[in-house]
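Interim report, section 4.2 (structural modelling).
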Amino acid sequence: MADTIFALSSGAVPSGVAVIRVSGPGTREIVEVLAGRVPEPRKTMLAKLRHPDTRDVLDEALVLYFEGPASFTGEDVAELQCHGGRAVVFGILSVLSGFSDCRPAEAGEFTRRAFDRGRMDLTEVEGLADLIAAETESQRKQAIRQMGGALGALYDDWRKRLIHMRAMIEADFDFADEEDVPGSVADQVWSEAGELGQEIAVHLERSRSGERLRSGLQVVLMGAPNAGKSSLLNAIAGRDVAIVTEEAGTTRDVIEVHLDLGGYPVTLVDTAGLRQTDGIVEREGIRRAEERGRAADLVLWAVEPGGVEQDDPLAGLPQDLRETVPLWTVRTKSDLETLPERDSSGTTLEIPCSTSFSDGMTALLDRLRRFAEETISVGEAPLATRARHRHYLRQCLENLETAVQATHLPAELRAEDLRRAADALGRITGRIDVEDLLDVIFRDFCIGK
Ligand SMILES: Nc1nc2c(ncn2[C@@H]2O[C@H](COP(=O)(O)OP(=O)(O)OP(=O)(O)O)[C@@H](O)[C@H]2O)c(=O)[nH]1
Ligand SMILES: [Mg+2]
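Predicted structure of the assembly:
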């Protein structure tokens, strides 16, 4: 029999109210001993919680009881909503450890039990983790939809279609000798398989948006030393995050701030100025700067007045980065010079900007917000949100395409590829052997969830 587990499920104490959650076969008895009786399921009861031996009053609390399987974990669950004082909470937790087969929960263990009992599939579990981690409105929306099962339902539907197709193909080759089974059944199935492949390909194409929304857009400030990158970061963050001096080569570490731009999550990254140098620390800073730049969704290339030769405003930026990452040139310190009208035939968007005037800053932030919106806006359709999803979607699609294209192969082999495609989807929702994955997924949770 499983242990009964318990944990403080609300945030750090002291707090006004603290919620202690208990789940497992011993829950009923524990509530009875502590509160005197077990409330009707799902009805709140105000009760004095007493020490099992001394009968001392530990606290007066609201007690909720959920009878399994109609509970979060699928087991009997109780929630003790007590006062959030340190001594109250730790007193109750220590009394709970005294019950036999009752122990503190591990991180994510309540949710793990919900998954093991089929109350949630893996995408819903991940949605819940994302909801707890969500920092902006759009992240919250995406997480809540995924936690509600929209993504899992989509994959289940595709999986069922694949299983059905496979059954049709197998039926077709079982009866292939009989005259009155028209060969067009198979043709029909393969054309449906082709259509499903298209749907999955489109979904896969859009999965980057879902992932970016989950993790935030990476916008990296790069440029020559002293170009004004750190000043820009500080001005945008509205606080003094990075050190600013007139000395070239001030910043060496990579510095991040998390921004909420109109509900969209953006991580703005400040980096070391790029130049040839013998300093080991600075060289490492530059290496890291370029590495972050390569992984960026957008590079803001900072150029100060007279900072670079006019014929190549991007001088100093590695060639591969110029070609692969979207890039805007930010003309910093625009207060120091009246900028000449620029030829708009230039390849990058140019934004004049000064941390001494708010005008350019507002325009820059506005453009960033629009960029975020265009890159990661959430439509109505559920999006894949993790590299894990993308991995199995790709696997599914490859198998499906192999099945559809292998017209020269016997139907048995093609049906086998359909099975593999369906299995790949089953791994996303956790319907199929994912044991090795589970620890990784649940480890991300906090204790008490
Ligand atoms: N006038 C004016 N000076 C600025 C502006 N932004 C930055 N500066 C000055 O430019 C100098 C360098 O600024 P930083 O923000 O440290 O430049 P950086 O690009 O981070 O430099 P490194 O970290 O050395 O690569 C400092 O003396 C700032 O005060 C601006 O908008 N107007
Ligand atoms: Mg700096």
